[in-house]
Design brief:
By secondary structure, this protein is mostly helical. Helices cover 51% and strands 12% of the residues. Helix 2 crosses helix 3 (34-41) and helix 3 crosses helix 4.
Length: 84
């Protein structure tokens, strides 16, 4: 968890518990939608909304921690593989 905390801090973002949990879930899943992350974290953060997850994922995209990918059915996914 310290490595994740440091990676988030180095990107210029504050390492909040929600950001740490969301990035950790992304590393576990590798490729996921905001809905999938919300479901993954529901037991730990029951009040975490999909909108909040989406906003955090977008902030990670903005600093280069994740990339946004659109599926053939126009569903938005996020990916930890930022290379191509």
């Amino acid at each position: 968890m310290e490595a994740i905390k440091e990676k988030i801090r180095q990107s210029g973002l504050k390492a909040t518990p929600q950001r740490l949990a969301i990035y950790s879930a992304m590393q576990k899943l590798g490729h996921a939608s905001a809905d999938m992350i919300t479901e993954e974290l529901a037991k730990v953060f029951p009040s975490l909304t999909t909108a909040t997850v989406y906003n955090v994922l977008e902030s990670f995209v903005g600093v280069g921690l994740l990339v946004r990918r659109c599926s053939s059915n126009n569903k938005m996914y996020f990916d930890v593989n930022t290379y191509g």
